[in-house]
Amino acid sequence: PSVLILNGPNLNLLGTRQPDVYGTTTLADIETMCQETARKLGLSIAFEQSNHEGAMIEQIHAAKGTYDAILINAGAYTHTSVAIRDAIAAVELPTVEVHLSNIHARETFRHTSYISGVAVGMICGFGAKGYTMALDALSERLASL
Ligand code: DQA
Description:
Layout: E1 2-7, H1 19-22, H2 27-41, E2 44-49, H3 53-63, E3 69-73, H4 82-91, E4 95-99, E5 121-124, H5 129-143
Parallel strand pairs: 1-2, 1-3, 3-4, 4-5
The structure holds 1,3,4-trihydroxy-5-OXO-cyclohexanecarboxylic acid.
1,3,4-trihydroxy-5-OXO-cyclohexanecarboxylic acid is lined by residues 10, 73, 75-76, 78, 99-101, 103, 110.
Active site: 22, 99
EC number: 4.2.1.10
Site (Transition state stabilizer): 17
């Protein structure tokens, strides 16, 4: 099975971006962790990042027929993008939402996610570990389909 891991805006800055909130782990570190976990689980993954909403939507469209599932950290688009939600709903691939920080313990505007309603589940607050937790859960879900 294969999983598209899609990271949204500003996540390319991880490591130096608000380390008090997001830690010092870089996106490259997270990719390495995901590759390691995927290898153990027998998954193949693609790891992508974009600062552009439309580009993310096109990556979601292209995932249909190419990947079996999506792991998405849509960054701030989580709280604004009906279009990304609609793209996920359209491709009908099992999708897990991940956030490094606990969005519910932060500003009120981060408490609403447009993604959650079309996701299989959501993991937040565990930093980079959330990505490998999500891969683990997706792997089980894909095996039982
Ligand atoms: C984030 C949480 C979002 O609110 C924020 O805009 C991000 C990162 C997280 O991983 O904790 O860019 O998705």
